[in-house]
Amino acid sequence: MHIVIVEDNKGVANGIAYVLRDDGHAVDLIFDGAEADQFLQGDGADVIVLDVNLPNVSGVDILKRMRARGDTRPVLMLTARTTLEDKITGLDAGADDYLAKPFDMAELVARLRALMRRVRGAPAKIHDIGPLSFDLTARHVNGPDGTIDLPRRELAIFEALLMAQSRMLSKQALLDKVYGTGAEVEEQVVEVYISRLRKRLRPFHVEIKVQRGLGYSMQHNKS
Fold it and tell me: Taking the CA of residue 131 as centre, how many other CA atoms within 13 Å lie in the half-sphere pointing to its CB?
């Protein structure tokens, strides 16, 4: 998943990001409400973790603007406010879930997974390519002989290419999926991960193709 965390407490934000990145997700961190409001108008994230109390523009106002322009992506709201009225305000603004601080990190991750299951729907959680299947919820790749253990960066690239459904993805698009938008990582890193992933997929006749200047795509070679 590609997750945006909008939280002005940098300690909390970095703690969430560390756990999610360790789980193989791409994460963007934003600490300011106005910046988040602008960013969310054009990014390609899957889910947003949004704090209520933010400088310049509140989380509730950001959420209202998202829903007003037809942005239906799942939003998990965070807040130090625990009254029922505050929770109702957030849910009425369009939040999909609500978590009060302080919270357990394992619960936050579980709630994010539940949101993605709800959006993707049960029938679509398993995607196949050749003899391989990918469970979007558990984030496991399964082959004829069981689970295939992919390092988390390679797994993120596999997921991005699989969900692109044979469309080309540029190196930058893959970096965004692996590290988050704007990460200071050289594009050549993608070539390393692609090379390793190709070797792991070759026995299953799953091929990653490159088209110079355009990017990469993945397909099953039936021959």
Answer: 13
